[in-house]
Design brief:
16 strands; alpha+beta; six-stranded antiparallel β-sheet; Jelly Rolls; about 280 residues
Length: about 280
């Protein structure tokens, strides 16, 4: 059992790093130590005087302010109610709830139906979506939206654009390929920096979709800002791997999906999700 899995078993996974500490990576160069990160003194100050873990709300709960603002939990921390595997009646057996997280434990020999992407039972049009994720090194996953569920399409990504999930340094080749790294709109728009956390720490994603205006955020940093369905968008798609996929971004509403991941590590794929919430706009 590796370090990250032990942390999941113990329910002792780390939260976000203190403000001032960054593990960002440029799309031009991967740094062993990122230029522009806070000095050791600033990091120490953030640890001493920044928000404490006790000040954070419990996982999979909403603050009174969030409730007032219209946020709704898509995961109650106990069941997979509200979710099913794409094209299936329920969740595949490789998906489970473990210690307040949605867990995917996928062996290399798994059958497709066992790890088929999770999708929301409901469809959404305009929304603000948030999720935390933590992954074992070698995990390649993503969050998709505007997913159209139909026998016409075998995979969620045939219709829905994706915010890529990839660990900082172990996923090959995605973590070394522009437009296939953490936070990228997969295959279309690269992030300038990957604000991905080191192994064993939670990552926070946010996706805002408002009448085709799409924004991606990693750790509070806006990394993608684009407009769907414009002539410029159609030109972008026409020069991508999706050029001959007629259903791709063809739907103006759809399911939100947590990808079942591709196997690129040396051991079973594992990824965890929590704090899955949405606010309709």
């Amino acid at each position: 059992m590796d370090r990250i899995e032990r942390m999941a078993q113990d329910g002792d996974m780390k939260d976000h790093m203190p403000a001032g500490k960054c593990h960002c990576r440029s799309t031009k160069t991967t740094f062993s130590m990122i230029r522009g990160c806070a000095s050791a003194v600033a990091v120490l100050a953030a640890c001493l005087f920044g928000p404490t873990a006790g000040a954070e709300p419990a996982p999979n709960t909403l603050t009174p302010q969030q409730q007032q603002d219209g946020w709704q939990l898509l995961f109650d921390g106990k069941t997979l109610k509200g979710w099913h595997s794409y094209g299936e009646n329920g969740a595949g057996k490789d998906w489970s709830v473990h210690r307040g997280t949605i867990q995917l434990k996928k062996p290399a020999s798994a059958k497709f139906a066992d790890y088929s992407d999770l999708v929301t039972d409901r469809e959404y049009t305009n929304f603000d979506f948030k999720v935390d994720w933590l992954a074992r090194p070698g995990t390649d996953s993503g969050v998709m939206f505007d997913v159209h569920e139909s026998p016409q399409y075998r995979q969620t990504y045939q219709t829905g654009p994706e915010m890529q999930i990839a660990d900082l340094d172990s996923t090959v080749p995605d973590s070394r390929t522009l437009m296939e790294r953490a936070g990228d709109m997969f295959g279309l728009i690269p992030v300038q920096y990957e604000w991905v956390q080191p192994d064993g720490e939670w990552n926070h994603y946010e996706i805002i979709v408002d009448h085709g205006h799409v924004q991606f955020f990693m750790e509070g940093h806006k990394v993608v800002d684009t407009q769907l369905w414009t002539p410029e968008w159609k030109e972008l798609v026409a020069h991508s791997k999706f050029a001959h996929w007629p259903g791709f971004t063809a739907y103006h509403s759809g399911h939100i999906s947590l990808q079942g991941t591709e196997h690129k590590g040396k051991s079973d794929v594992k990824i965890w999700f929590r704090n899955v919430m949405i606010r309709e706009l």
